[in-house]
Amino acid sequence: MNEKKLRLIHTVCGCVISAALIVATVCLILSAHTIYTSGDSPYTPESIGAEYNKIAIPLWVAISAVFAGIILNIALPMPKSKAKAIKDPFIKLRILQKKLPEGISHDGIARQRYVRKAYRAVCALLCAIAFIPAIITLCDYDSFTVDNLTPALLRVVGMLAIGAVISGVLLFALSVIERRSAEREIEWTKVAISEGKKSDQIGTKNDTENTKKIVRLVLVGVACALIVIGLTQDGFYDVLQKAIRICTECIGLG
Length: 254
Hints:
Largest sheet: none
Strand content: under 5%
Order of helices and strands: HHHHHHHHH
Distance between the termini: 85 Å
Number of strands: 0
Mean pLDDT: 76
């Protein structure tokens, strides 16, 4: 079979599987919401089964699509992509590292590796902080009553969406920073290979500036995360009430 047609078949199959899984997931969520809001507690297997029988078709379609995709990958495997010019700096870096003689080191190479690890740790921490408001809300079981279920779920979904957007921006920024760091390490690796001996420190000034940027990003990220947490927990109302008491009781305004 033509390689272009085979790729098209795999693409269409992947889109169908994704659409079927999304529809099945939405149906399951809606059915669970309907069961919870029906007020028929304690729930019986018969009542739950009757509700899920309504969504049997999309569930079976999703399961069938997954099995069809597995069979397609076995019967008609995806063709291997042709070798292209290497553009990924990390692949170039791995190739250069194999050419680097043993015992040859460079302070710039070690510093860039440390910088990338630091950025990854900071990004992971900020991503975790971004989802803290949603986790706190989910742990507050008293807010998820039958009468208040829909607003509570919408509030949690909004918090999760905000956390996902913040995480996406952080991950995009991390990918850009890591690529630049890898490009700098490539330059220093080439220098170390060409010299064939331990190189002197190069770019110490740039490394110091990078360290300062890391500290600034950490402080800004933590500050933004704390502001978001305070807004979600209505912390500014406490500050407003204290300000009102100071004006009315101490100063005597009003």
